[in-house]
């Protein structure tokens, strides 16, 4: 039952960006109130509630929360508010709090930074593709997507840096730059700069003692190129165009309150003052329980989360919210990228809103508590999944010299199938897998065999999800190595013993991406300067 529940939670998380796209099309087709977002996210909240009731330490919190909700809705009904509006409004406000408590108690090792990285990639892909095809993005709120992309970026960048996954990193960076230019919000542009500065400062802090003069000069050169380049991109971006339009439209040419309100906060301070004046003149009951959703639905929101919460649920509701929020932060003690990510979400919520009271976004700051628990730990050798792959013949013979270390890992052998290795199935059973045998001597036939081999390689990679790929060559191993490197898997290549004076084709292909590259002859280091001379494998 636990495995089924874990997979259900995993599926619901992966479906978040898809859910937003479906909701976008439903709303644009004048669908009913009960959109996919309302239905699925209501289910998520109910599941979280039921799960928390089984956690002893959370029962008091839930009873306290339920009593508050009953009191709030009852008092709002007493003064003539609508039940549906108030129930829906309070569920949106406390959606983050409930999910935060759920993720801080829930255990699921499948939910990691890697998963978040691919969810992030889904958001970027949908955003860019829908803009290119339809001329507009398939999300209801530009601000919601901006908050997600910036808030989760420290987790994604940190994961890519640790895995040294250059291929995936370049894809995400390219899509992210495209998304920033498409969205054109101040949140994405300035948020991205803050995130980059954070990682640059962190890198310098951790490595400045190791810096050589060449590295210092290189960093200065990068900065000298980066600063004017970023300035040029910003000046030609949609975000800058909007800022200049606001400055000219409102004639806000001086850096004063008028400029800050109209240009920086997009009139949010103006809306804040209007709502505050209405709130402060209200009866005592309204001061305690807030203006309520029924009334506020007819007004423009401030779009600064803490004030939107305060005006909607009043002094009492805001105190309940802050107590629960602070309790989550104290209990979970976020660190590193997770802490920085939470800080970004909080800052975005203050300056542009659409974080803690947006159900599309609030699931992600809540998810940080689980990610913080699931941060990568050193994997024990016995749990490390290793794939040993090679062509048949001499390359396979060399790889089998490593047999004494096989049992130290959760290992799998992949080799081209021929008569010389068929009988190994009796010895290794499910630990050995076969790829089709092919030779470039028959090129036309080899093209079809190689295509089939690539598809089978993808299948084996998904099936075994290796932490490390070890290979002695040759062409059979190239697709597995590139696929693994793309997804952050370490690649160990051992150049064949047969080559002493010239590099192999597979060696030349894999050398640029290998985590460790080993040669068996000292002479081979002229072709592979960064290789390790491991001596003979025999």
Which structural class do you get from the secondary structure elements?
mainly alpha
DSSP summary: helix tally: 25
Q: Report strand %.
A: 5-15%
Q: What is the topology, as strand order, of the major beta sheet?
A: 3-2-1-4-5-6-7
Helix percent reads: 55-70%
What is the rounded distance between the termini?
A: 50 Å
What does this structure look like?
The protein has 538 residues and is mainly alpha-helical. Helix content is 65%, strand content 6%. The chain contains 25 helices and seven strands. The chain has helices at 2-14, 16-28, 36-53, 56-78, 83-93, 95-105, 113-134, 142-163, 166-183, 186-207, 213-235, 238-250, 257-264, 268-280, 284-289, 292-296, 305-332, 336-351, 359-373, 394-399, 403-406, 424-428, 443-464, 478-486, 505-510; strands at 385-390, 410-416, 432-435, 468-471, 490-494, 516-519, 532-533. Strand 2 (410-416), helix 22 and strand 3 (432-435) form a beta-alpha-beta unit.
Q: Briefly, what is this?
A:
This protein is mainly alpha-helical and 538 residues long. It has helices at residues 2-14, 16-28, 36-53, 56-78, 83-93, 95-105, 113-134, 142-163, 166-183, 186-207, 213-235, 238-250, 257-264, 268-280, 284-289, 292-296, 305-332, 336-351, 359-373, 394-399, 403-406, 424-428, 443-464, 478-486, 505-510; strands at 385-390, 410-416, 432-435, 468-471, 490-494, 516-519, 532-533. Helix content is 65%, strand content 6%.
Helices and strands, with pairings:
Layout: H1 2-14, H2 16-28, H3 36-53, H4 56-78, H5 83-93, H6 95-105, H7 113-134, H8 142-163, H9 166-183, H10 186-207, H11 213-235, H12 238-250, H13 257-264, H14 268-280, H15 284-289, H16 292-296, H17 305-332, H18 336-351, H19 359-373, E1 385-390, H20 394-399, H21 403-406, E2 410-416, H22 424-428, E3 432-435, H23 443-464, E4 468-471, H24 478-486, E5 490-494, H25 505-510, E6 516-519, E7 532-533
Parallel strand pairs: 1-2, 1-4, 2-3, 4-5, 5-6, 6-7
